[in-house]
Amino acid sequence: MFDVIIAGCGPTGAMLAAELRLHDVRVLVLEKETEPASFVRIVGLHIRSLELMAMRGLLDRILQHGRQRPPGGFFAAIPKPAPKGLDSAYAYLLGIPQPVIVRLLEEHAIELGAQVRRGCAVAGFEQDDEGVTVELADGEQLRSRYLVGCDGGRSTVRKLLGVGFPGEPSRTETLMGEMEVGVPQEEITAKVTEIRETHQPFCLRPFGEGVYSVVVPAAGVSDRAKPPTLEDFKQQLRTIAGTDFGVHSPRWLSRFGDATRLAERYRVGRVLLAGDAAHIHPPTGGQGLNLGVQDAFNLGWKLAAQIHGWAPETLLDTYEAERHPVAEDVLDNTRAQMELHSTEPGPQAVRRLLTELMDFDEVNRYLIEKITAIGIRYDFGEGPDLLGRRLHDIDVKQGNLYGLLHRGRGLLLDRTERLTVGGWSDRVDYLADPTAVLDVPCVLLRPDGHVAWIGDDQQDLDDHLSRWFGKPAN
Ligand SMILES: Cc1cc2nc3c(=O)[nH]c(=O)nc-3n(C[C@H](O)[C@H](O)[C@H](O)COP(=O)(O)OP(=O)(O)OC[C@H]3O[C@@H](n4cnc5c(N)ncnc54)[C@H](O)[C@@H]3O)c2cc1C
Question: Buried (b) or exposed (e) across 352-388, using 16+ Cβ within 10 A?
């Protein structure tokens, strides 16, 4: 008997497993594939995800494997630098191969005590009042109290749950792969620059050791069952660039579409959905993995609280209430970005106009806070603007604030030195620091770093501790 079975060990499943293990939840991750993905897709970790990694003490490990770059230029690939003074101690983008980030998160989850079983596909399940019986493709049955589908865009869990996945099917498709080229780099750079003025996405980027990452629009929408061939790439390169750059010796070839869909619900009883299982959208702006990892970060402590029996009645449902609107917003901003990538004269004109508008600091800041997810404000009711937002990392007496969140517990940061977390001290840490650079007297942080309360009154604090952390221990 496990507390939680997670279907899928992608970035979302691995992150969720680690978050649950911080709270001693018995976790089993079932992964369909016997081996980690062999192809290398570079993904961008945006500011909020870097902050999450810092909050769990993972950032240094991750930075060693990625390349930092300025955070601007991501909205519809409009090349504008980020505005100055972004509200984060981690104001950059980290380019990192997806298999590496998955491996690091999986290792972290295993170090914390999660079990991961590869070559095990979830094929069915049944839930009752006490738990979920999960059936594997080979017929083996396992039992847990909760099941979370982190099994990607074609999620078996979502389909078996009968949750609708409305949205738009793919209208365009893009080929993506790694291969060698037969012409000099300068020739490629000149051609790519010329083509990118009208064709997004199009890219031939050196990847080291003579290998290039190639991204080119496909001829049409396929059934995606078969991977593309090198000839498909050559043909499309010739059609768009007038040359196939002598591409040869592919390492891997794949394709992706621009389907945009959002699950109608994130929870049915004891079964939940997170990551691509709950939402899919085209990769423009590089938000999918970030969104999934952030879902896991939102869900982990709430599910742990439910399992340990201290969760207030509605806590687990705040997962969907908070994360569904965030995904809705990401889907919308990718739809907008896709329009701006169109080669039609109307969208091109809008793109030129938006490019001009982004010279206004506020416009540029608004878009970058959206893409990097640092602009998210959950609806915790009326209160100061900071309520419901994440608190950026700040210096505190013992070092930095995020360094105090490694254990995934709540935190009261008290500048008045008068308050106490009393009977919640088994779930919430306390830090008295009158020197902390904050323009409010005290903040209560949830384990995901969002501000759950602001004030200086003990009774008001106790009410909010009850709201988020349940009944006091004594
Ligand atoms: C070209 C491209 C570029 C991208 N670039 C970025 C980027 O820069 N930044 C970004 O944030 N995102 C990017 N993304 C999106 C990102 O790759 C996905 O959003 C991310 O992989 C979703 O993670 P996940 O864990 O939710 O799902 P997945 O990564 O799909 O993982 C799901 C896992 O579940 C397993 N599984 C499936 N079915 C079962 C089953 N029945 N039982 C058990 N296991 C199962 C799968 O094998 C897989 O390991 C990009 C996507 C593409 C296509």
Answer: eebeeebeeeebbbebbbbbbbbbbebebeeeeebbb
- Is 279's C-beta closer than 6 angstroms to any atom of ligand 1? no
Structure tokens at 109: 């989850």
Contact between 28 and 67 under an 8 Å Cβ cutoff? The reply is no
User: In the predicted model, what is the mean pLDDT of the chain?
Assistant: 94
287 lines ligand 1 (CB under 6 A): yes
Cβ(12) – ligand 1 distance below 6 Å? yes
288: nearest Cα among 45, 19, 16: 45
- The confidence score (pLDDT) of residue 1 equals 87
Instruction: Tell me how far apart the alpha carbons of residues 447 and 300 are, in angstroms, rounded to a whole number.
Output: 9
Pocket lining: 150 vs ligand 1, CB cutoff 6 Å: yes
| Block residue for tokens 């196939």 | 244
8 A C-beta contact, residue 295 and residue 29? no
Strands 122-127 and 93-97, bridge-based pairing: unpaired
Its pTM stands at: 0.95
Ligand 1 atom closest to Cα of residue 256: 53
Residue 44: CB within 6 Å of ligand 1? Answer: yes
Residue 200: its pLDDT value, please?
65
How many angstroms separate the alpha carbon of residue 83 from the centre of ligand 1?
30
Beta-carbon neighbour count of residue 140 at 10 Å? 10
Q: Percent helix, strand and coil across the chain, each rounded to 5?
A: 35, 25, 40
pLDDT of 41 reads: 81
**Cα of 269 to ligand 1 centre, how many Å?**
25
**Residues lower than pLDDT 50 in the chain:** none
Q: Is 122 in the pocket of ligand 1 (CB under 6 A)?
A: yes
> What stretch of H or E contains 214?
strand 211-217
pLDDT at 199: 67
